[in-house]
Amino acid sequence: MKRASAATTVARVSKRTARSSKAPPKTRPPAAPRVQLDRAGLSLSLPDGGRELLPLRAGACHYWRLERSAWRAALSSLVTMELRLVETYVPWQVHEHGGEHGEPARYSFEGALDVAAFLREAHDLGLKAIVRPGPHINAELTDFGLPERIVWNPDCQARTPRLNPVMLPAPPRAFPVPSYASKTFLAETARWFSVVGRELAGLVWPNGPIVLVQIDNEGALYFRDGIYDQDYHPDAIAHYRSFLRARYRTVAELRRAYGIAAERFEEISPPLRYDVRSAEDLPRHLDWAESHEALLAESFATMADALAEAGFSGVPTFHNFPMGESATPLHAALVRRGGRERGLDLISLDYYHPAGDHRAIARRTTELAVACDALNHPAFAAEMGAGAPPFFPPLEERDAIFTLLCAMAYGVRGYNIYMAVERDRWLGSPVDRDGVLRPFAAFFRKLGAACDRVGFGSLVRDVPARLVVPRSVRRLARVMHAFGPVSQALFRVMGGGMQETVLEDDIDFGEGHGDAPPTRAGRILSAAQRALEQEGVPWALVDGGDADVALAGARLVIVPTSCGLDAPLLDALRAAAAAGTRLIFAPSPPRRDGSFRALPSKALRSSLDELRSEVLVGDEAVDVGAIRHRLRERALLEHDGRGGSDGELPRETVSPEPCAVTVHRDATGTPRVVFLINPTRARQHLEVHVSGVSKIRDLLDGTTHDLAHGVNVEASSVRFCEVVAPE
After folding, report:
1. pLDDT of residue 425
2. pTM given for the model
């Protein structure tokens, strides 16, 4: 049968969507989405008008990398592992043929490439599906799964300051990465999505298993995310100038901010290198950094619109942030907003940590979880590593088990095992390529059953203390990155922080400290984190861009001010203070805005009076002992002699350091689950004090422990325990 061309498909889908998107009669309320986000998973509409709550536990299985005869065995193994969904990419490069030299592209979906048949087979077994059609998927594919005709099209390519293509040295060969601003690339993506829609739109819930769809993949500018590395594509420059026009409104206002003599926005060019000589030079560079954040968010939203036009409306969209995401231009709140009325629905994280990497997991996960909890979204690990590519440092089973349990301890409620089923360019999965379960699979089966037993997805972790990372800190760290095209995110993944990557600059930023402002902020946050851990106070990181939602329920908020605070963050802090939250600034009262411009003295006095805050001054801000003393002095902590507290902040104590305990409660506030974390390389005997908890039972090995006698926890491991009600 003759297939319609991609262009014809786009037109047909657009007309169909336009007809179906007409406003309903005013007398009838709009129907609820077929699939809604819930902190415990996904809420699915049912034919009888009810809804089903689906725990978000998935396993990755790449249909095109298996023999078609192995599909059913592999999918059945996912069911045996207590997983509820199968996840798969739909690789553009694999399905497309031709398309060069002006010829129309052809697409193959037969045999092992019949993704619709694969998903129907999953549906028959009771599995729902997560579909990830790109356009970029990585998946250890050559050119990250993009067709050669796309990556080698000059109109699609991101550009360096010298207007050369931006090359990514990724195995098995380097390739030029696309520009997220390129209109040509976005149009090609829309055409690809129309092809995917032709094959799969009929399988969107409730007509089929598709309940969640990803837009793009790890969108950190293809890991070439240095601020002066890209993107100088003409469409990106046009976006930058539009960004400036929206921010400053008039050229006169821009001239005052930049100290330049431009007459039109079209005369403004982005900075090509770090040439800052004083704090007054920073606004131009910080605006360039912020424009990258806006560009990614708007590009994802454009792709989401194209996917909806292709027939995937009615189910949530999401994007996965890679390891080291805090050092990239990815901005969770902006991606959700999309630079318009609505962007993507859900932000998720990827996890590939070695066993014992407790602090990094805690920081990443708490930042994700507090925002998701406030929005009633599931904190989702879109790629929870099980195995690794053969050209990466190996990750063993114990690494995967520690990482997953530790992430759950700090708030992850849903996960996708990547890879659940082994394939080429991947080693260490719990299911082999023939669909046969390996011993490793037993852990995931036990874990899924345990989560169902305690209703883990619906539990809540009370986090009274929040440590805010202003967006200005992350932007300035990108501006002052000392290693050029080597991604700052790489240093985060390797355990480094801003102190290791930020320029040791002798510029006078007016702070009176020897270190650069982002380095100072990093030291303040680290000291506050250690002080709270030593006092047993649960804490979470908060991205300043998410503060309007992520400060909900906080009783104490600590904010570094060395890089300035923007107006939305100050507004969020005012709202928190009005709700009774204690605010502490460090190392001084806020004196600059998010672009490092001095705040007007009148506005500054008004803000401080309204916030009713206090300040950790100078070196006190990076002194763990001084911070602990301040908390006690203000009666935020009062020891009751049993490891608990009669102060304003609840405490969950554990020794020895750096072991940790987290507690998850039900809707009544009753403790239901306790995690005990031993990140050290030796077995530890933990002394634990949690109010209302005396006895726990390990949900994975069945052993019962009386907290009065302490609990043994093996090296680099986590105990997942239910609270045993007193008899």
Report:
1. 94
2. 0.92
